[in-house]
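CHAIN AND CONFORMATION:

***
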Amino acid sequence: QVQLVESGGGLVQAGGSLRLSCEASGRIFSINTMGWYRQATGKQRELVAVITSGATTNYADSVKGRFTISRDNAKNTVYLQMNSLKPEDTAVYCCYLHTLLAAYWGQGTQVTVSS
């Protein structure tokens, strides 16, 4: 079974930066989509950013211009560079790996931005 392990969460002041990583292991198909979603307490889950095997990216409007998603296909790893962080970015961030046949999700990592 595919396993996803996230890292990089923590506490940061508003205006600061943080980088999240998510490495997938197991039987991984080369053609896939990886990305991140987040859920703050009492709020709807939100897709933050996605990236395809061909490096096509999409971002939620709330993070455009501040967050950058990237990937290393050889490692099946996705990264999320978060700059100019705001208190409203506080949430549990989870990564995912998606193909036409299956989807896999990580356990999440907490990001807290203080004002």
Remarks:
- The mean pLDDT is 95.
- The first strand starts at residue 3 and ends at 7.
- The radius of gyration is 14 Å.
